[in-house]
Batch of 2 targets.
Target 1
Amino acid sequence: MAVDRKQQIIDAATKSFSLFGYKATTMEQVAKLANVGKGTIYTFFKNKEDLLDEIISSLILEIKEAAEQAMDPDRPFFENVHRALYRISEFRKQHQLTVKLLQEVRDIGTPAVQEVMKKLDRAIIAYIREKIDIAIKKGEIRNCDAEITAFLMLKVYLALIVDWEKEHEPLTKEKIAELFELYFLKGLSK
Amino acid sequence: MAVDRKQQIIDAATKSFSLFGYKATTMEQVAKLANVGKGTIYTFFKNKEDLLDEIISSLILEIKEAAEQAMDPDRPFFENVHRALYRISEFRKQHQLTVKLLQEVRDIGTPAVQEVMKKLDRAIIAYIREKIDIAIKKGEIRNCDAEITAFLMLKVYLALIVDWEKEHEPLTKEKIAELFELYFLKGLSK
DNA sequence: AAATGACTAAATGGACAAAACGGTCAATCG
DNA sequence: CGATTGACCGTTTTGTCCATTTAGTCATTT
């Protein structure tokens, strides 16, 4: 076909969601930006929520790819997890779409956006979990509940990057790596 | 004096804040509950916010006492930190006031309540920090940034208790203690 | 067969009046 | 006379319209 209408719509919606947020984006706006009739959107997507969902699904793939690229198979497990998590959080910070949607969850709490952000978190946790499972099998780390560990790793990461800055000076990338290793790898025991 | 008017007011306000939240509580309501005129409140408290602030300040003292009681000087540092944090989180869960106010922050985001909850968090972190500082001095744990460690310990605790339950079965007290020790004390290295 | 935009029911937001609110202070009370 | 009070004030919040906008449909067009 001359033009991929579905891709046009996705591009237009991504742009508008990034710029104005989910709630403030109207389907007519998306249609205009995509140069299609409003009805056409509904031949590809069940509804507005489904449109956002598909966009986030491909964003998840993008994030996974970015994380995968940040890792180096020759390096130890822990450095790689740090690299992956750091890359993921950088990705979040740099991508207009995630920034805008996180802002929308904070400020308005749009249910559809909340749902989709949970999905993103779950995907990241599942990804880290895979890495942990492999590391356990390889004997690189102590045996542990991979799901809880992945969950906590993400929490600690976001706490160090997002929450810490609310009341203190931001931590450098190196400091974060150091802290991450201290708490998760070495532990506080002497 | 026959009746402690200030205490009456504090009791009435605590009850009303616990039952209806900060925003939904009117000063007239507090006055009625306390059996005083509305003006009397303002002879003891600068304004509504100040009233909440005093209540939280004494709550902080209560929490510290509860934590102190939960600890046992004969036990190792780590067990005590776990006991203290667990006691604090139980305290939060059981106290209607904190439950209601946390709910209000989530649902409405009342600025005054947000502020006072931050203060509560800061107090808990400062308390844990003291314990960490002592443990470092005594050589019970590795040298580390006590402020960041206290911050992370609280984060991890709340994550395990509050956030984990949102998508999984709640963890038992024993499991939490075990996890806490695993990540913070031992680390994942073999 | 694919694409469209006029159409509809439902949701939203702005304008405005009424009610409720936090905080003050002159009058009252003990 | 100092402690206490509730009527009072300016402001904010709430409720209620109604006009506009919106997501989603579907008969019509391409």
Target 2
Amino acid sequence: MNSEHIYLIGVVMSQQKVTPRSEDYSRWYTEVIQKAELADYAPVRGCMVIRPYGYALWENIQDTLNSMFKATGHKNAYFPLFIPESFLKKEAEHVEGFAPELAVVTIGGGKELEEPLVVRPTSETIINHMFAQWIHSYRDLPLLLNQWCNVVRWELRTRLFLRTLEFLWQEGHTAHATAEESEAEARRMLGVYQNFAENFGAVPVIPGRKSESEKFAGAVVSYSIEAMMGDKRALQSGTSHNLGQNFAKAFGTQYLDKNNVLQYVWQTSWGLSTRFIGAIIMVHGDDQGLILPPKLAPTQVVIVPIWRKDEDKARVLAAVDQIKADLGAQVRIEVDDREGFTPGFKFNEWELRGVPLRLEIGPKDLEQANVVLARRDTRQKVTVPQAGLLPHILQTLDEIQSNMFTRAKDFMDANTFDVSDYGQFKEMMQGEEAAGFVRAYWCGDRGCEAQIKEETRATSRCIPFEQDGTQGVCFHCGRPATEKVIFAKAY
RNA sequence: CGGGGCGUAGCGCAGUUUGGUUAGCGCGCAGCGUUCGGGACGCUGAGGCCGGUGGUUCAAAUCCACUCGCCCCGACCA
């Protein structure tokens, strides 16, 4: 490989397109989403339109998770949007948890319905209703299903991708013969999420158990992966629940075991939603806009051809066609040959849209048989020969992917603190700015957590699996504590 | 649901205090020409139920009443 010229791209710009993150983080967030054309506001409050670019990102998330679920033996199915209201009421904690945020249909075809239909906020109930009919024998177990769908939760305060009235997700639902199996399944699927988040989204996460008050309504135990956003707030990026026999008992989901004894099944459910797109935006983005991880980016390489005269144009575009033919099968490419936009404009636009790698090619490059590659993550430009371009690009995309993860991991680690003094914690959590993650001994008591939330607006995010095995005293109430917990301000 | 703010072109705004003829500016959009290696420029042009309803008036974007919607801040959340 020839000597590569490396230089940083000038940051001087004639006009600021996006509000800098340091100025107003949440404004930056909404502006980036709209300007990058990921999503737009819908005419209904709290709802959003996912635009083609955002949906392509979601499709890549779906494809990746789908192949992971296939590898773990899960099959896709689809259950109805409408759930009889009475179903929700069968599991006590479940109703209590979801009642305030249900959308309910009371009229159909112009007539008042005999029984109102709930628009699914999640599908445990209707799935159990069906499981009860499908499962008869231990031979029917385990039953491992997943569905991709939309769900509706009538939230008060909404944010694009993070919390909208309707959102897209996948929900896995499984039934098992033993408590050990359902526990193992819940943990296994959280592992799948961690693998996905870290190795595909380049989003480092802390896997752990949810506290009593943060756990899913109707679960015995909830697990989650927690990620740190660019403003040091926490975002729950995926959850997995061991439902025990709670729903099985409410719906009579039973099977005959080997001894011909009727048993309730043990269940799990787990979900990852379009919220994860919010995580990608906030974990990686900078003041230029999005930075998408190569493995999930709808476009991995954008080619910007540059020309002055018509004769140059023809030659440059011919070279672009050749490059496209060489790379096309292995790299997701887009060629930006729009007329009437200067190269500089296009550079900025594709950076805003977060394309990991840009390839510039113009008359000067043709003479030398070179191209210019510009990395989105480091904003470095290098000149490389056209010969051997494919392996070079593939390697660069790998480097970007791992650099993005490392950078995010370093940020999270640098903003995670061990604290034992509650006064210090309170100090840290003061003000609007989030201080990051605080790891502290905590007793696990519901009331204790409620007080902490009241006093600091921080909540327990998860009790990490990774513990050093030592014991201590609760940093808030002083009672004995066996585990350290992550506290943070959360989305 | 309580407190604060805002509705004028696709977006951002001016005009409203003190009513007056054809409602303006920037960006964006369309056409043409010159440009093109880090956000180019000129000319021409399209685009408005001034959130809605009712009232006052010779006359309402402007004054009055009601109403609808949105945004921000406080109690819930993938």
